[in-house]
Design goal:
globular, alpha/beta, binds farnesyl diphosphate, Undecaprenyl pyrophosphate synthetase, 7 helices
């Protein structure tokens, strides 16, 4: 079935909780990490599609502050996967004008992984295409506490506003997500963008992340366009 989207009502910023890699692998009798490997192909497909249809910001939850509790081998695999991803794809991403940012704490990401992220961020800093934010070693509560620390260091006067606070978050200068997608049928926020998701539409897809590609994204976008966004008011508003 062909899906027709209204290009004037696309979300400006999509955030994604890429869930279900482990289940995808287990259902095929494979080790969990194979789900992460296949999940990379979904990452590629979703980045490409967002760039093509004119989404401005895409934020992917690639590694949370809670993910350090996973088995050591899986953590090592995920770190290596990110480095390999940049090694293989950075020139193509750069060529397509993608600008990469990292959202999260640097500590305790291994130095080699940080170098690879830093190089990608530096190389693509002046690009004007899709803004790709990688939430890596990211935790929403940690981000809020870090923002409070940053704000206090600015020796502030009383009268903190939402605008000022938004500026000291990791996402300072980036508009809030209009749409949060979570794959694999789970209804949880999982410590992701707690402040920024205040008014986001949430769409949960039953599809596991490694199987979530362009057609599945189109379906979610069609669902988004059927929603009314009122921001607490009475008239529908679309991004
Ligand atoms: C959740 O699935 C997924 C993750 C914790 C990692 C997501 C990482 C990738 C898709 C690849 C790396 C991405 C980039 C951008 C380089 P899960 O393992 O919790 O699945 P389960 O709930 O089925 O166990």
């Amino acid at each position: 079935m062909k899906i027709h989207l209204d290009t004037k009502c696309l979300p400006r910023h999509i955030a994604v909780i890429m869930d279900g890699n482990g289940r995808w692998a287990r259902r095929r009798g494979l080790p969990r990490v194979e789900g992460h490997r296949e999940g990379m192909n979904s990452v590629r497909s979703i980045i490409q599609t967002c760039g093509e249809i004119g989404v401005s910001y895409l934020t992917l939850y690639a590694f949370s502050t809670e993910n350090w509790k996973r088995p050591r081998g899986e953590i090592r695999f995920l770190m290596k996967l990110l480095v390999e991803y940049f090694k293989r794809e950075i020139s193509e991403l750069h060529g397509r004008g993608v600008r990469i940012r990292m959202l999260g704490r640097r500590e305790p990401i291994p130095a080699g992984v940080l170098t690879s992220i830093d190089n990608a961020v530096r190389l693509t800093r002046d690009n004007r295409g899709l803004n790709l934010n990688l939430a890596f070693n990211y935790g929403g509560r940690r981000e809020i506490l870090d923002a409070v620390d940053t704000w206090l260091q600015m020796k502030p006067r009383p009268g903190l506003t939402e605008e000022i606070f938004s500026r000291v978050l990791y996402t300072g200068g980036i508009p809030d997500p209009d749409l949060l997608i979570r794959t694999s049928g789970e209804y949880r926020i999982s410590n992701f963008l707690l402040w920024q998701l205040a008014y986001a539409e949430i769409v949960v897809s039953p599809v596991l992340w490694p199987a979530f590609r362009r057609p599945e994204l189109m379906q979610v976008l069609a669902e988004y366009q059927r929603r009314e966004r009122r921001f607490g008011g009475v008239r529908p508003v679309h991004a």
